[in-house]
Write a structure and sequence with these properties.
- Helix content is 31%, strand content 28%.
- It is of the alpha/beta class.
- The protein has a single domain, classed as Rossmann fold.
- The model has no long low-confidence stretch (mean pLDDT 91).
- It is a peripheral membrane protein.
- InterPro entries: AAA+_ATPase, ABC_transporter-like_ATP-bd, ECF_ABC_transporter_ATP-bd, P-loop_NTPase.
- This is Phosphonate C-P lyase system protein PhnL.
Length: 241
């Protein structure tokens, strides 16, 4: 049984001052088994981020279903679950990494990662140890650990964002350009963490402009222009888009 299935997905946006409705994307179909990683490729504006944000329920689709096999609730349509259920899923099952960091002010780097673990039920001792291991893995300078992220560079903020999401080891992790502003060494660290999560059973949906980063990492590649899977390493099928 698939852990995630996108069926007939479509999303439109209304530009109210122009009284126009613009399609973001339509007729999207793909599915993932537990532990698989699908990469979504396509030009800017093709709707890649719209799909991720709709899975996370930041957006609601206009067409289709987003079926997710929840550990707590069973098979649900993420566009139809209650707000309370979605908050639970975001807290315990579904992680999201964007290019941007949006956190509570006057909360330190260390506190943000520790709090992510504490809300998962970890003890304070375990949370503190795992926080330091994670921040060290992503090579955030220990001098920054007790600083506020609004003073961080773009790359530092992105690494913190990834640390906060991955430390919870979610069942489903959504990655929206997670390496956009990172240097090569930091990209390697992100790849190592993704591989570790995948090996431990996390299912992943990712958007990357860095095709080299995706090489050998994704089980499937979905092309937004072709609107189909163009690479499926699980069954040995591949084609050029």
């Amino acid at each position: 049984m698939s852990i995630l299935e996108i069926a007939g997905f479509g999303k439109r946006f209304t530009i109210h001052h122009l009284d126009k409705t613009m399609p973001a994307t339509e007729n999207i179909h793909f599915s993932l088994e537990a532990g698989e990683f699908i990469g979504i490729v396509g030009k800017s504006g093709s709707g890649k981020s719209t799909i991720l944000k709709s899975i996370y329920r930041t957006y609601l689709p206009d067409e289709g279903k987003i079926l997710y096999d929840s550990q707590r609730f069973g098979l649900v349509d993420l566009s139809q679950v209650s707000d309370r259920q979605m908050l639970y899923l975001r807290k315990y099952e579904i992680g999201y990494v964007s290019q941007f960091l949006n956190v509570m002010p006057r909360t330190t780097c260390r506190q943000l990662v520790t709090n992510a673990l504490l809300e998962m039920g970890e003890s304070e001792i375990t949370a503190n140890v795992e926080t330091e291991k994670t921040l060290a893995h992503f090579e955030l300078d220990p001098k920054l650990w007790d600083s506020y992220p609004n003073t961080f560079s773009g790359g530092e903020k992105l690494r913190l964002n990834i640390a906060m999401a991955t430390v919870k080891k979610p069942r489903l992790l959504l990655l929206d350009e997670p390496t956009a502003s990172l240097d090569q060494q930091s990209k390697v660290r992100v790849r190592e963490m993704i591989e570790k999560l995948k090996n431990n059973g996390t299912t992943l949906v990712g958007i990357f402009h860095d095709i080299e980063f995706m090489e050998g990492l994704c089980d499937k590649v979905f092309d937004m222009k072709a609107k189909k899977i163009v690479l499926d390493n699980k069954v040995g099928v591949g084609s050029e888009s």
